[in-house]
């Protein structure tokens, strides 16, 4: 097998496997999982099962396609569940990844906010120290009053 050259693009190889975009598939799985977790889905599924059972119980014998133990219905529900579970897990994994990234961003924002708060605290402390060394208006007024009292004998 010849060595691949890094300065040339690879040759496109045909693959038997179907190509899909993982991001698009992930978004689709999230939409499906979001729908499976709604009351609307439960209502649709209940109506579907009730219609299935009603048809196979009340329809003429020649039109029934799934007799009483409803084996085909059980197979259909099992198939739906076998596809739903991995799609829900995929959606949960994507949500966990987003939560992890959001948590990291929140942590960085908290650290930046903490650093700014510490900086401002040091600045305020420096200003207080500086102001403490400055003569205030009240201090100057009291000194002037004391100086006038010393000049004017009583």
Describe the structure.
- The chain has helices at 22-36, 39-58, 71-133, 137-151.
- The mean pLDDT is 89.
- Helix 1 (22-36) packs across helix 3 (71-133).
- It is built from four helices and no strands.
- 73% of the residues lie in helices and 0% in strands.
- The protein is an all-alpha fold and 154 residues long.
- It is elongated, with a radius of gyration of 38 Å.
- The N and C termini lie far apart (115 Å).
Question: Which stretches are low in confidence, meaning pLDDT under 50 for 5 or more residues running?
Answer: none
Measure the end-to-end span: 115 Å
Number of strands: 0
Binned, the helix content reads over 70%
Major β-sheet annotation: none
Mean pLDDT: 89
Helix/strand-derived class?
A: mainly alpha
Q: In terms of quaternary structure, what is this?
A: single chain
The Rg value, from CA coordinates, equals 38 Å
Enumerate how many helices there are, as a single number: 4
Strand content: under 5%
Write down the secondary-structure element order. HHHH
Instruction: Categorize the overall geometry.
Output: elongated
Task: Draw up the topology in text.
Elements: H1 22-36, H2 39-58, H3 71-133, H4 137-151
Helix pairs in contact: 1-3
